[in-house]
Amino acid sequence: MSNQKIIDEALQKLIEGNKRYVAGKPLHPHQDVERRRDVIQGQQPFAVILGCSDSRIPPEIIFDQGLGDIFVIRVAGSIVDDIALGSIEYAIDHLGTKLVVVLGHGKCGAVTATVQGGEAHGHVTSIVKAIAPAVEKAKGRPGDLVDNAIKANAEIVRDLIKSSKPLLAQAVSEGNISVIGAYYDIHSGEVEIM
To answer: What is the CATH code of the structural domain delimited by 3-193?
Structure first.
């Protein structure tokens, strides 16, 4: 099977799972004792989700997936650093995952705080600094600045992952992986692929 077909099928699994979640008809796949036993031997997640730490946005639930299905990295603001990049590289290089999704979401507190400005304390400053370019990029776009900044942040993080050398940039250029942005509407529960 071609890499593109694998990527397309992985994305379709996420979309279908999200549709079940939005409709209130989740299947809760791969969450039984048998699956727990199966994944003891190893994991083969079909997608990497880089998302926000926000407790209202658990990827396994909003995409209706189970044990071993998705490789999840969560950090406030859905930002990426060397640790997150290393985690993505691990999933790509060692687990064979072909799809990476950067998931932004409505009402993101980290992006909202960055838009509002003010003084960040402690290590929160690092998060605000990482999100600031997205706020600048979103200024002047029609619509809500916070929502636009959330989407711009997902785009920037997506592009950082795609250009991360040597491993991820090479995998993208060779067509071995796909890196996409997405936006979770906290009101409807729907995920929009950007």
So the answer is: 3.40.1050.10
Q: Cα separation of 134 and 168, whole Å?
A: 22
| Beta-bridge mates of residue 103 | 51, 182
Model's pTM, two decimal places? Answer: 0.96
User: Between helices 109-116 and 145-162, what is the axis angle to 10°?
Assistant: 110
Token digits for 15? 């979309």
The domain segmentation of the chain, as residue ranges, is 3-193
Q: For 55-73, how does the pLDDT look when each residue is reduced to its tens digit (9 = 90+)?
A: 999 999 999 999 999 999 9
Q: Answer yes or no: are the C-beta atoms of 177 and 7 closer than 8 Å.
A: yes
Pairing of strands 178-184, 99-105: parallel
**Residue 135 to residue 153: CA distance in whole angstroms:** 8
Note whether 158 and 151 are within 8 A (CB): no
